[in-house]
Amino acid sequence: MVKRSLLLILGALLAACASTPTPTPEPAPVYRIVTIPALEATLIEWMTEYSKDVEEFNLKLEVLAPGIVTTSVSDGDVELAVDLRLPPVDWFSTPLAVEPIAIIVNPAISIDTIEVAELTDLFSGRIPSWSELTDSTEDVQPIIPIQGDPVREYFHEIVMGGTSYSTNALLGSRPASIIQLVEQNPGGIGFVPLSQVRGDVNVLLIGGVTPSASDNDDENYPLHLTIIAMAPNEPVDPVRNFLLWLQTEESKAER
Predict the structure, then answer these.
(1) Confidence band (pLDDT; 50, 70, 90) for 19?
(2) Which site among 1, 2, 28, 249 is 20 to 30 Å from 95 CA-CA?
(3) Which pLDDT does position 38 carry in this prediction?
């Protein structure tokens, strides 16, 4: 009888152990950040550097068309948008960096500096040949961002002043494709965020001024946009910590 009781107790213990599965660890939450194609490379660089400074990196970058970046945050599926446009009224927002817009040309064009009025004429088609400005005889080939891109809109407002872009202009969906088209066309000229410049292109001065993130006075480089982080409400800690890190790194770079 005693033996039978011991067996029953042992069986009950084994059954209890068998019915208590090992709990599965909860996956760490992932916080989504969205941006536009013009800032993709910048955000990748920032997030890569940030991941080296933290023990747990749980941010995910997604690149969306410019027109739907803020909408995706409004829908509640995304924690933060990083854009070159101003945020909607009453949203949380904070500036992250000033981004100069670089004028790039194919190395076949022998030119170092250019004036804003000349840019207007080049991108509108009023100047069809580089021979009007340089010793080069190549036809001017403007390359511009696609419709809706905030860099294109800014350039159209500041440089074109309402003048239409040339119907001969080629379109690039992101800075890398614009750079590639400038490389491929001997008379190519385009504009991209300065931080995105790569490859075999030359960056022009404007009015003799080198591209710079400073906008304190009229003597500084004239083309620049502000990179802005935004959300309907102030972000939660993992995202907020990333923003604080960015602003600290930016202040270091300015010192």
Answers:
(1) low
(2) 28
(3) 92
What letters, b where the CB count within 10 A reaches 16 and e where it falls short, cover 61-85? beebebeebbebbeeeebbbbbbbb
Residue the block writes with tokens 């009023």: 126
CA distance 130 to 121: 11
Query: What one-character-per-residue DSSP string does 215-232 give?
Result: -SSTTS-S-EEEEEEEES
Cβ–Cβ under 8 Å, residues 92 and 240: no
> What's the whole-model pTM score?
0.82
pLDDT at 69: 87
The secondary structure element, H or E, covering residue 144 is: strand 141-145
Q: Any idea which architecture 31-98+226-254 has in CATH?
A: 3-Layer(aba) Sandwich (3.40)
Spelled out in words, what is the top-level CATH class assigned to the domain 100-223? Answer: alpha beta
Give the separation between CA 143 and CA 126, rounded to whole angstroms.
Answer: 15
Local confidence band at 249 (pLDDT 50, 70, 90 cut-offs): low
Kindly report which listed range (31-35, 175-179, 198-202, 235-239) carries the lowest average pLDDT score.
235-239
Position of tokens 């790194």?
Answer: 249
pLDDT over 60 (residue 217): no
